[in-house]
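During data preparation, we tokenized the protein backbone, and the record follows.
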Amino acid sequence: ADHVAFPGPSAMTPDQYCQDRAAASGSSFYYSFVFLEPARRQAITALYAFCREVDDVVDECQIGRASCRE
């Protein structure tokens, strides 16, 4: 998985981090959020960013497991 470098935690708010993390995915799913009202958009963006993080962790674990077997 491609990893995107983000500034340290003090450099942005949690909402900014979620926004950047979701936008960095390049998914067309993310762009559908613009049609939501701001409060819902913020909530779904946070959820989507969380899911992207979990997906990256799972991918890293699977890659680690595969390299251990070789």
User: Anything to note?
Assistant: The radius of gyration is 14 Å. The chain has a mean pLDDT of 81. The chain has three helices and no strands.
